[in-house]
Amino acid sequence: MPESKPSLLSLADIEATRRPFVEARPMPGPPYRDPRIFSAEIETLFLKMWLCVGHQSGLSSPGDYLMREVGAESVIVLRGDDGTIRAFHNVCRHRGTRLLDDAVGTVPACISCPYHSWAYGLDGKLLTAPLMDEVEGFDKTDYALGPVRCETWNGFIFISFDPDAAALTECLAGLPDFSRFGMERLGLGATHEYEIAANWKLVCENYGECYHCPTNHPQLNPVSHFRSGGDSFEGDYFCGGPMRLNDGCVTMTVTGQTTRDPIEGLGPDDLRLVHYFNIYPAFLLSLHPDYVLTHTIWPVAADRSVIRCEWLFTPRAIARSDFDPSDAVDFWHVTNEQDWAICERAQKGVQSRSYRPGRYQSLEKTIYFFDNWYLRSMETALSGNCNGNNG
Ligand code: FES
Ligand SMILES: [Fe+2]
């Protein structure tokens, strides 16, 4: 029998969030501030689940790569000479040195280790290893970079550090069908990276409700009313729902207008809605009539997160000589900054031992879904009986 460890969250606290929505309470402070819970989340969620690293259009040419960090792990996602996108551990096979530092970049024909110059091809194979021909029995083919699972969904690249994870498409099979948005054909129009002093779950929760919008986003209500959300819904791997654009507004920009055409093939409903989904654990997908915005949230510490945003547009919009994504980018950049400020303020509050959760407002149903998914997924770890190596 595994040795029983002390619980990281009281059963009463867990049950308070698990009650039916109208009786439930938000989560208490420890999941937002306890470094032991943070380590357990890395092990249980981020090193087990599929994580979106970005849209495939960000890796348009051979040698283009993304680098992402999760706990002590680091992954390189790289387009090869054959056009295939692969993922590798960012760890040299000689003596383990980290290979690449930048979150995004392009390598020439190979990845060269900065320590002793072992060089790996864009397919991860070891190409050259100086002086190693003097080493008896050394065979380059034994020392390719360690592979990381890498699959795509609607044009988005996902990785999983878990070799036993079910296939990505199987995991995401329950999501609504977004194929009409043709996301695999969209192209990257802009990116932005933020680092904020708040727990990753506060960012997910904040995304899941517009109860905070009148107080925090004065520019948002004139374009999409904070009570315009339709029914939110959930599945095993997601929660979310639509919000309606105000009459006369065609998209989320400062004016509610744009010169871009809508994404071809969308029906009249989609032209009036913005769909907001969190694909667990932390891939926020916002589908607008004429563009798609994504946030990927990368936990750094219990009270720190990196957030990467991508704005994706149709090839037709990007091909225009006057293509200018700034109406969409500026609108969400301002909104993001307002959100990060309030998330950092929330972090300061939940750090306090005095914090006791209140109640969910009816506009916070998506948060209830998220919190309950989190508690279900973390049940064993929070009970203190997680056998994983949590560092
Ligand atoms: S550690 Fe990379 S070449 Fe030696
Ligand atoms: Fe917000």
Mean pLDDT: 95
Spatial arrangement of strands, main beta sheet: 1-10-9-4-3-2-5
**Overall number of domains:** 2
The N- and C-terminal alpha carbons lie at a distance of 22 Å
CATH H level, superfamily name of the largest domain: Naphthalene 1,2-dioxygenase Alpha Subunit, Chain A, domain 1
Structural shape: globular
The proportion of strand residues reads: 25-35%
Topology as H/E string? HHHEEEEEEEEEEHEHHEEEEEEHHHH
CATH architecture of the largest domain: Alpha-Beta Complex
Structural class: alpha+beta
Q: Tell me the Rg in angstroms.
A: 22 Å
Main traits of this protein?
2 domains; 391 residues; alpha+beta; Rieske Iron-sulfur Protein; single chain; binds fe (ii) ion
Write the SSE topology.
Blueprint: H1 11-18, H2 30-33, H3 35-46, E1 51-55, E2 64-70, E3 73-79, E4 85-89, E5 104-106, E6 110-112, E7 119-121, E8 126-128, E9 147-153, E10 156-160, H4 168-171, E11 187-196, H5 200-207, H6 213-216, E12 233-235, E13 238-244, E14 273-279, E15 283-287, E16 291-301, E17 304-313, H7 315-319, H8 326-350, H9 365-377, H10 379-382
Antiparallel strand pairs: 1-10, 2-3, 2-5, 3-4, 4-9, 6-7, 7-8, 9-10, 11-17, 12-13, 13-14, 14-15, 15-16, 16-17
Helix pairs in contact: 5-8
The protein binds FE2/S2 (inorganic) cluster and fe (ii) ion (FE2).
FE2/S2 (inorganic) cluster (FES) is lined by residues 92, 94-95, 97, 113, 115-116, 118.
